[in-house]
Amino acid sequence: MTQGKVSVTNKSNNESDVQPMASAPPSYEEAITVGSPCYSGAYAGDAEMLTEFSWDDQNIRRIFIRKVYTILMLQLAVTVAFVAIFIFCEPVKYYIQTNPGWYWASYVVFFITYLTLSCCRGPRRQFPWNLILLSIFTLSLSYMTGMLSSYYNTKSVIICLGITTLVCLAITIFSFQTKIDITSYHGVLLIFCTVLFICGLVLAIILPFGYVPWLHAVYAALGAILFCMFLAFDTQMLMGKKKYTISPEEYIFATLTLYLDIVYIFSFILQLFGTSERE
Length: 279
Prior knowledge:
Elements (H helix, E strand, L loop, with lengths): L1 H16 L10 H7 L2 H4 L5 H8 L4 H31 L1 H9 L2 H19 L1 H5 L3 H22 L3 H24 L8 H21 L6 H27 L11 H23 L6
């Protein structure tokens, strides 16, 4: 009996002396498949945290949309102010029309800032450089829009501003209310872009030999329709829960696209319905 007790005691002591072997770390493929504990909910409370702070959360998406439209309203206010100064102030109108170099300088600034904000994630997300670049972009495009408006009759510019406001408001309400996923029709946008590019190329080739009013009208109509479609597309990307969505971190890019769509809609509507001052 004593021997048996001793053997049992020795066995338990030997087992307690054996140290458990550490498990080998998972491979890269296993880590990708299983997922990191802080994102897979392996730790207690992670599921609630991800549910509360997920990018798809309605509160975060609502704050994101509010931020985008606040910045957009400021941009549009600056653009309308430039247009008003350039069409109502005769000395300013005369100066910008007799000095076209400022237009081309603003176009270069517009193009550089647009490429920087569209293609470079760092400057687009780094505060305050993203707001500085967006402000420069807004000022340059506002100058170009104001100069374009200065060549048209004041009443026609105001009418085109009203038409643009109603059209953009209707498209925005439609994009928010409809169940149609407009972001899935990106192939249609590509076809329209191709048609508009070919039409613009033909117009540029023919223009030195003579102005063709009906071709210019077709080009302006196609441009207005295309950017109305782009506005609906970008608005639904802003909303989320569609085939393509914009991350709430990309509020600068979302504002940039919406602002550009609205300004181009106005410029094409102005070319389509505006009355030149020479007429």
